[in-house]
Amino acid sequence: MATINGRTLWPEYLIDFAWAIAFGVVFQYFSIAPMANGYGPTVIYRALKADVLSLVFFEIGLFGWMAIFQVAIFNWKLEMDTVTYWWMMQIGMFCGHWTAVPINYWLIKTNVKEPCA
């Protein structure tokens, strides 16, 4: 198992972030392509522009909360197979949502992203 300073949280952040970017760009690509009537590098670039900043800000909230609860609240003792861990993750998702709201608002205002509704 990969560790940094004896902890797996930090490599998990890197792996989770890479997967989030990969899935996010794929989902954005297949959302944008039909609206743009085309597929290819231009649409990939638009998907990257629409999703990377949004995901960075979401992950700041989520990963920030994960660090707080793992390091400060539970002193590295909270295991993934507990209900409390997954409850803390739900709070992290909520935090991630709210740290992503301002950047998504800006991305929509500047026409980088399309509003959903």
What can be said about this structure in brief?
This protein is mostly helical.
Characterise this structure:
The protein is mainly α. The protein has one domain. Helix content is 75%, strand content 0%. The protein is built from three helices and no strands. α1 packs antiparallel against α2. The longest helix is centred in the middle third of the chain and has 33 residues. The chain is elongated, with a radius of gyration of 17 Å. The chain starts with 8 loop residues before the first helix and ends in an 8-residue tail after the last helix. The model has no long low-confidence stretch (mean pLDDT 87).
Helical content, roughly? over 70%
End-to-end Cα distance, whole Å, is 43 Å
Class derived from helix and strand content? mainly alpha
Characterize the biggest β-sheet. Answer: none
Indicate the radius of gyration in whole angstroms. 17 Å
Protein name: DUF4396 domain-containing protein
InterPro entries: DUF4396
Keywords: Membrane, Transmembrane, Transmembrane helix
Organism: Saxophila tyrrhenica
List keywords for this structure.
about 0% strand; about 120 residues; mainly alpha; single chain
How is the topology of this model organized?
Layout: H1 9-36, H2 41-73, H3 83-109
Helix pairs in contact: 1-2, 2-3
